[in-house]
Amino acid sequence: MDSNNSNWEAVIGLEIHVQLSTKSKLFSGASTDFGALPNTQACNIDLAMPGVLPVLNEEVLKMAVKLGIALNANINSPTSFARKNYFYPDSPKGYQISQMDKPIVEDGYLDIELEDETVKRIGITRAHLEEDAGKSLHEDFEGQSGIDLNRAGTPLIEIVSEPEISTPAEAVAYLKSIHSIIRYLDISDGNMAEGSMRCDANVSVRKKGTTELGTRTETKNVNSFRFVEKAIQYEINRQINEIESGKKITQETRLYDSQANTTRPMRSKEYANDYRYFPEPDLLPVILEKEFLKFVEESMPELPNEKRYRFKKNYELNDYDAKLLAADKELADFFEEVVKKSNSPKLSANWVMGEFLAELNKNNLSTKESKVSAKQLGTLIARIEDSTISGKIAKDVFEKMWSSSKGADEIIKEEGLQQVTDLSEIVSMVEKVINDNPDQHKKFLSGKDRLFGFFVGQVMKESKGKANPNQVNEVLKDKLKK
Amino acid sequence: MSLSDKELKEIAYLARINIDKKDFPALKAELDQILNLFDKLNSADTDKVEAMSHPLNLSQPTRKDVVTEPDQRSKLQASAPLVKSGLFIVPKVIEGEN
């Protein structure tokens, strides 16, 4: 931030659109699969053919209620739908079915953890259900646009925060926390690159110490965690510069350009934001029965913070390890599978976050795509614990497991990598090394203590790295004295 | 309550309807009647009445999350004025940048 920016503070609110991972659409039985041929998943209802009526997908209600519970929010019953009217070719009805007065989720909050480990509570105004629009393609049609309505009618939930976020870093922490929760709840794949999670940022600035809100802009098209941070930072700086040079901020929608790292005005909201909402006459209000709410509540999975706490308590992990593992549900599940087999939580945590993650990143794979299963990794760690192999040799074994899909035991056996713990075998190796190096032995006896390391090295070499180092030390101490 | 010409034009623009200047007086008179009715409605005391978003006191039925609609693109596009590579072709949308 520029030095003169220290007199200013930003007021940020985020609107996060999350595509819900249902099989069929919000109001029709058309498929929601990603990547189908254009318009092959757009049925009569999605196309707004005359006489069709929307029928609500019950799975969407379950997903929304789960989210509401996770966000410590009220669930509205009845909850009702409204029409948001606007004209655009990717919305055949001329309106989008959304929610206005009675959103399904209202008045919640989320505690986010900042880098200095302080916790900040961000209020959630609401989360409402709505249908997605189709896609417009402007290239290759010589002055015309091509419309693909496969996405039209896909269920979205829009999560609106209170303007209680103060810095770009807080915005990212909040977004990551929401991302982690929707993955845990299994209500969306949260893939920002494919557009399953999209974020708009409402940003305004004001002089520090004042309470009146400045004019805000809405920045769209921020489709990665990094861009959210950069786009908001750019917008804060832009607004401060405008105001300090005597200009006024226009309330407008702006588009983030990640290539240039700038935002620019998209369209004037003067007309566009008059959506003339009214209650959707084709849909009755939805009453969520007590039994239904109870059923959803009982099916709630453990959430990231609960898991982090349990990892600390049950596995005696430190907070850093527990937090890192719990942030990603797949990784956390993988870790627990490893522990079942290895019986060593701390060593398992080190391996999962160390060698395992490094190998995944190197090959650009997700946890699910790992070449080594959790059970296989657990067995490998168990072999370190029971002293079959050393930690150093385990790393070689792991690499071989990754490239061959063989299990740890198989590789250890095939390559004869078992650690030598048989005392008589170690004694004979030590004796051989001493006999082979009479000069060094003499120097050692005359006081050159540093040669002890040389003998350890020779014995380990003799054993091809397989001798148990503690035993080697003990035996050498004894035999070298003579 | 009486509408100005400017307000009438704005309403027509929002609904994407072209209206002829000579129809303004008649349209304004009709819309004024509707607005007067709302004034009358607004004068009713509704403090103790719970808001209602639908006249039927029922809950919206739901359907199971299953795919029931097969691909019918060729049928559905048969009546479209212009189709290319499976896409509906429309006049270029210039507003905004998306």
Note the topology.
The complex is a heterodimer of chains A (about 475) and B (about 100).
Chain A lengths: L7 E12 L36 E2 H13 L3 E2 L6 E4 L9 E4 L6 E9 L5 E13 L3 E3 L6 E5 L6 E7 L6 H18 L11 E11 L9 E6 L2 H20 L7 E6 L4 E7 H4 L5 E2 L10 H9 L5 H12 L3 H9 L1 H14 L2 H19 L10 H12 L5 H14 L3 H7 L8 H14 L1 H8 L5 H12 L6 H12 L2
Parallel strand pairs in A: 12-13
Antiparallel strand pairs in A: 1-10, 1-11, 3-6, 4-5, 4-15, 6-7, 7-10, 8-9, 11-12, 13-14
Chain B lengths: L4 H10 L9 H19 L19 E2 L9 H5 L5 E2 L2 E5 L7
Antiparallel strand pairs in B: 2-3
Question: Kindly, what is the distance between the CA atoms of the first and last residues of chain A, rounded to a whole number of angstroms?
Answer: 70 Å
Strand order, largest beta sheet of chain B? 2-3
User: Given the helix and strand composition of chain B, which structural class is it?
Assistant: alpha+beta
> Would you tell me the overall average pLDDT of chain A?
91
Structural class determined from secondary elements of chain A: alpha+beta
Strand % of chain B is 5-15%
SSE run of chain B: HHEHEE
Task: Tell me the strand percentage band of chain A.
Answer: 15-25%
DSSP strand tally of chain B: 3
Rg of chain B (C-alpha, Å): 23 Å
How would you classify the quaternary structure? heterodimer
Low-pLDDT runs of chain B? none
**What is the number of E strands of chain A?**
15
Q: What's the gyration radius of chain A in Å? A: 31 Å
Shape of chain A: elongated
